[in-house]
Amino acid sequence: MLRILKNWSERYFSDEEAVYLLVVLLTAGLVILFFGGMLAPVLASIVIAYLMQGLVSGLERHGMRRLLAVNLVFTLFLGLLIATLVVLLPMVWRQTLLLVQDQLPYLLKNGETWLRQLPEHYPEVISMEQVNSIVAVIQRQVAEAGQGVLTLSLASIPNLVEVMVFLVLLPLLVFFFLKDRETIINWLMRFLPRRRRILDHVWHEMDDQIANYVRGKAIEILLVGSATFIAFLLLGMHYTVLLAVLVGLSVVVPYIGATVVTLPVAAAAYVQFGWSGDFALVMVIYGVIQFIDGNILVPLLFSEAVNLHPVAIITAILLFGGMWGLWGVFFAIPLATLIKAVINAWPSQADYPDTAEQRGQAD
């Protein structure tokens, strides 16, 4: 057993570059694991700056000076951030309150009526006592959720302070990451060995795929959310902004997001229109948007940017989402792509033959 482990370690860790790569990955993982909460503004700023670097590079290729390009792109980012905080979020919050206060009780009442009819039609499957237990649990959960949405307790004030600090630091960090990008990268390179073939391979593969993925995902969210908003507005739907935001953000989680967000769309349409042709029209239009997104928009935006099997994508979403919550879900595919790049770049048996065989041939 010890000989097998020794041969395996010699095969895959005989190159010092493999050890460097392992140290870099472990260091980054430990920093995120233990200090991710404290460094959240820095990590988010790095992602946003990385996302916007493509715009800066594009403006530079067209002859614009870098500092002017950085200022222009940062102004665009700042305008979008202010518009989101001042316009979009208040509208989403108001519509969420209206949905919880006005429509949710009506939907629950209809659901309770339907549940209480089940024992009459299927007495061998479910009893009235079971229905009463289910209804009591649902009412308790809804009351707790509604209280959390409608009220802000004193215990939430520290979280609000953290959000305010986050919003102040985020634009500053994004600006400096864009402006001093080369200086920061050169400083970090001082801590890496000069001979880093494997690290460079992983970086180039990640840079090609993740840059396309992140930028493409931002465009997909914008297009799908805008199309949903326009379609629902023309159909006369209530809570148009809230539903459009939910549908737009659902594309972050492939396969699962579209399935989950179908429930609030169908519930809002049912409360407003009932079982009618208008309800069917809303669901058909929603289905068309999802079809266009999955079969036309995604292939156009991503092509081969992220070549991962659906099983790998779902597994990554479950794993990283369970570890880091919403952030883990958002970065599940980039992290899975990183793991794939590391596996592809890691020395294989063909690169490093069994040392025991080499010794035998030498003898």
Notes on the structure:
This protein has 363 residues and is mostly helical. It is 83% helix and 0% strand. The protein is built from 14 helices and no strands. The C terminus is likely disordered.
Topology:
Elements: H1 2-13, H2 16-35, H3 40-61, H4 66-121, H5 128-150, H6 157-179, H7 181-189, H8 197-234, H9 240-250, H10 256-273, H11 277-302, H12 310-330, H13 332-345, H14 355-362
Bin the strand percentage.
under 5%
Secondary-structure element series: HHHHHHHHHHHHHH
The largest β sheet comes out as: none
Structural class by sheet pairing and helices: mainly alpha
- Spatial shape: globular
* Spatial extent as radius of gyration: 26 Å
Quote the average pLDDT: 77
Q: Please give the share of residues in helix.
A: over 70%
End-to-end Cα distance, whole Å, is: 24 Å
Residue windows where pLDDT falls under 50 for at least 5 positions? 153-157, 352-363
The tally of helices reads 14
Count of individual beta strands: 0
Brief overview:
With 363 residues, the protein is mainly alpha-helical. The protein contains 14 helices and no strands. Helix content is 83%, strand content 0%.
List keywords for this structure.
single chain, 363 residues, mainly alpha, 14 helices, 83% helix, 0% strand, globular, disordered C terminus
